[in-house]
Amino acid sequence: MMTAATMTNEHVLSVDDRKQAVGRYANYRIGKLQYAYTVQASSVARAHLSLLRRGIDDGRVRWMNVGFDLYEDWPQDTLGNPALDNDSNIVTETRAIATALQMYALHQQSKSQGMAWMPDHKSTGNGAEAKQRAQSEHFRYSFGRACRMIDADQDGSKATPVLRRLQIMEDAPDFDGIRHQLYSLIRMMRNQDVKLDYQAFAQDLYLLQLPGRRASVFHRWARQYYAVHKTAETKEGEKAKRTAEVQQHGQ
């Protein structure tokens, strides 16, 4: 009988299945760290975050520092055994999760509130309403939206420092080039108290390493980044129109 682990080792799992597993595990590990650091004020968690941050500024993963947080509860039933070298996907998966952990460690540094957004699984209303609310929440804390939130000078007519970093990332020849720009953007999110959905972010980090999926990630980030600006303009226009109508009727 073929088990889940066997399916993983034989590369039966689809890219989307692996993406989902990467996101869930990264979010699980980050959730544990965040609770221990912000709620329990754990000195152990503080030490782990400090270790995770080492090397991030020069774009390197120091594997002996991140190993515990990365592999302690590794989901072998979905992502395979990381100790074996017979699964080429392990390298891509571990790099995505390790990068997410490092970026979170930077994001959370010296912050009392949790900087990783964790969805509220309590559902109210009917299924359609709950699903719509969940989609809205995920959009609000998506990477593209977070970049728009820290880009206060963006008016749609110029390339700001944030937008330039995003453009450099899209043109980067490899994942290391992308990581270098992410470091600056995450640091800006920390400075402005902007939270991030790390489950979705880890999934993006996984897809960014796949040649056939990389463009789709930047396309999604662009939609998240620019749609916010357009929506704001639309709301302002509608508000001005309503004001004008009220004034006209009042005359």
Beta-strand percentage? under 5%
Query: Which structural category fits the helices and strands?
Result: mainly alpha
User: What distance lies between the first and last C-alpha atoms, to the nearest angstrom?
Assistant: 80 Å
Largest sheet: none
Q: What are the secondary-structure elements, in order, as H or E?
A: HHHHHHHHHHHH
As residue ranges, the low-confidence spans are 1-11
Mean pLDDT: 85
Question: Could you estimate the helical fraction of the residues in percent?
Answer: 55-70%
Q: Helix count, per DSSP? A: 12
Shape designation: globular
- β-strand number: 0
Radius of gyration: 20 Å
Tag the structure with descriptive keywords.
mainly alpha; 68% helix; globular; disordered N terminus
Structure, described:
This protein has 251 residues and is mostly helical. It is 68% helix and 0% strand. α2 runs antiparallel to α11 (198-207) and α9 (161-171) packs antiparallel against α10 (175-191). 32% of the residues are buried. Mean pLDDT is 85; it is low at 1-11.
Topology:
Layout: H1 4-9, H2 15-39, H3 43-53, H4 63-71, H5 76-79, H6 89-108, H7 127-140, H8 143-149, H9 161-171, H10 175-191, H11 198-207, H12 214-250
In a few lines, what is going on in this structure?
Helix content is 68%, strand content 0%. The protein is built from twelve helices and no strands.
